[in-house]
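Worked problem 6 (solution included).
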Amino acid sequence: MNRKAKDMPVIAIGGFSIECNSFAPNSTSLDQLRSENFALGDDISRDSAGTSSEFAGAWDVLTALPVTLVKTALIAGTPAPPLAIDAFEFIKNEIVSRTPENVDGIYLMLHGSAYCREELDPEGALLKALREKVGPRPFISISMDLHAHFTQEMHNAVDIAVAYRSCPHIDLYETGAQAAQILHQAVIGNINPVTYVERIPMVVPPAKHDNEFKPYGSLMNLCKEIEKEGAHAASLLTVQPWLNVPDLGWKSLVVYDSKKFDGVSAAKKLAAEAWSIRELFMEDTTLSVSDALTAAAQDSTLKVFADIGDATNGGSYGDSTELLRGLLESNHDMRAIFTITDPAAVAKLWGKGGGATKITLGTGGKSEYNESVECEIKVLAECDRKVIYTHPAAKDVTGSPGKSLFVAISHPVSQIFAVIHQNPVRVIDASLYELHGVNILDYTLVQAKSHVSFKAGFAPLTESYILANTRGPTTADLLSLDFSLRTIPTYPFDL
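Solution. The predicted structure is:
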């Protein structure tokens, strides 16, 4: 492979980042992506994906070096239901067509867990098309979420693959910078990196994916030790578990120079350590909705109700009524607030503030996670603005809830409030509530839609939280979902 270094190398940069969920209803359109973080060609800037994003980290590294940058396309969406195939084809065509054939290197910010019902491996298809255009010579470097599903097609196309090592994710910037630094060193001929991947046949719930605690933190520290020993990068991909795709499983990745470091043995060591403690990740620390509400009602201090079954940062649609039904059925005296994606309800209520109105929230059938519930609602405020996240992993990133309403829901004892919105957005910090001027500190209970990430987002307000064992597309009970395409054997399904 002829990869002769150049004095002023040309590097193409861009990004395609969205986390999808195979089990979520509905789909994500190109219009939805256009309303979020979307830039083409010269419209791309350092902060197009947020001020602390991987792209910002890569940008700062590369713009400080003697290289020529070619900006392609950068499209980063809120985690969501499956991506519409026409949206993916647009993204693929924009990135590939805007990448010159004669580049010396390519950096892409990817998530690694995109999904279309018609294309199970969008990132792999994108990278394959890119490699076919530019040929074998230029180095391709990608940064990923640590919950990426790194496929064989992706591996075939890239030379350098780097992922976060923190959950909640607070090292996005550093990850992008690392991927860019390795790429530049490769392009100028100082190193010749390759990536080795070792599959670990396990898929476990993400509630214990917290690097501040064992056992997860120990595994992430092992990645750092491997780098200290001589690897260019070491990552452990603990996978977005709500993808019905072949080969789903944890993977250890090591980027190394084969003449200087044994990356294969290092990746196998990391994989073996993860496999040896797999059962620790199956321990259940959640409470039922009823028990969670009882715990929250013990005093009036603010607690976060982590609705893990409807985790919008795991690609769920955000339409669960589990918390609402629990609140309506309880006799606890508390002040609670939650969110729900329900475009039909927004359409019925928009512009009709004033008195109480009876309306149905949720679209599911009896006993489903989003079972329809009739409520008496009073609209208190309307809003049609974007969310600007404050979470460290999405700082200054925008989300588009569409039209949203702040409402009060009648209850004989509790004070129940909700934000009803048209489109799914991440509920990992207080930004959606704050669109309506809500002060979260005035509440006993606030809903988050996340297994772990909410901790960093709500930390400035409270560190008191309850993991609620709710049902839905991001349930912790993986055995209740139909993983019909999984590779067999995979723990805990088959082992």
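Discussion: Residues 10-281 form one domain.
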